[in-house]
Amino acid sequence: MSASLSESFTIPVGPLHVALEEPMYFRVDVEGETITGVDINAGHVHRGIEYLATKRSLAQNVVLTERICSLCSNSHPESFALAVETIGGLKVPERGAYLRVIAGELKRVASNLFNVAILAHLVGYEALFMHVMQVREDAQDLKEAVFGNRMNLGAICIGGTRYDLDGETTDIFVASLDRLEPKIREILSTYKTNGSIQRRTREVGVLRTDDAEACGVVGPVARASGLHHDIREAAPYHVYDRLPPEVLVLEEGDVWSRALIRLHEALDAIRILRAALKDLPDGPVNLGEIPEIPPGRAVSRSEAPRGELLYYLKTGETEEPERLKWRVPSFPNWDALTFMLNGAKVADIAIIVNSIDPCISCTER
Amino acid sequence: MNFLSLFARNLIEGPYTDPFPFKPAPTAKRFRGKIAFDPVTCEACRQCERVCPAGAIRFTRTKDGLEFDCWHDSCVFCGNCEFHCPTGAIHQTVDWHLAHGQADKFSAVEHGLIPFKVCPSCGGKALDSAPATAGITPALSAEEAGELRALCPKCRAKFIKARRTRT
User: Fold this and answer.
1) Which of A190, A345, A354, B107 has fewest C-beta within 10 Å?
2) Where are chain A's structural domains?
3) Percent of chain A topping pLDDT 70
């Protein structure tokens, strides 16, 4: 018994585990308390959505893709609609494109706050967790007031958006952003200075820049490891060429920098929202009746809160697509966990896994 | 962040959660809830049935007319039916009180009937659905709309053609 701490073991973490957000299974080799090897096993939430998508019309798939993932629920139909519009040669009206940016950025605020809150929970700082979730509740209430639902906005349709802003909802929007911004700034300064957070997250789960590049990581994980990569900037869609994001890149590559990137992006999203609300042009929000989409193939990309989301769509003679495939940001980021977990402590597994904001329901669909 | 002041505020203001079911919970005006159907304004184009991704909407032809059913337990509240409806006959209310006993799971249905009528012009049997008036210019007067509504689809087409040649 006395020698047991220095012996090596193989321990299972997941698929059902108290500290994991989603069902994933890691087989972890440990030497004492240090991780020496990780084996990742997938396939616990496969729902067959790719197959379902080929059995539904394009208009029905806008709703189906929205239900792939709850936190990126706007980015999926957004990318899907972009792919359909590329095949059909459709041009989204100016106001519709602005409204799409507004829906996407509001989702980014709520989504990033959620991940940062879970980090506080895993650190064991429950008071901060409750507070961040309460701040996020402002964003949730705003979504309910403007879109009618807290998670599934139903904002996107092929050829534009389904919703429109009037004077009343714009006022609610502006007032809510005014409440959110100082609170998020306060949270950011807490994460920068708080001792408990720093001790558990700094230099934990480090992903070096060359490893990040080799794994092809995307989103906040890439930007925290020194890779300057944001689809909104690299290949602007909607009106992001007029509302460019301020891309923050950090070099440390640890859990802490990923949290800081997320908080910075929540604040940057509020700046983009304010600019978009100010510049919002008049006109139609969508194309109305959508012409028949011809057979064709298209690839579209968008920046979901977790990173680059890529859609491939192939349409045929029928109104159902022949093939719909997506590569979600969690897919490359998940692979990078083997690098982050190597040499880490067993107690940090949950914090490191949470730091990539894994979404297994997207990845395994 | 000063957690002491946060605690003090939370002590004074109490819980953030709503005291539902002891008091009514506030609901947003734009909330997308339970489906409501109005058979009087329905054109019977069945577009809602086509775009519903959950298969919650079904039209059935019976001896009384065209029956509409929307199963609330199958509905995903996406609002596709409302968005694609040309007349606004189907819409989402702000009602989210959908809890029910196990025994009622198949009867939690929004039901509507578009009955049959007799066409005053040709005497044929037709559905008493709202006419498609979106593309007609100049817009119909209330009297004309009532007249058009009473007709069967074939006589409606004749009516619109005759009106076009008149103007």
Assistant:
1) B107
2) 46-329
3) 98
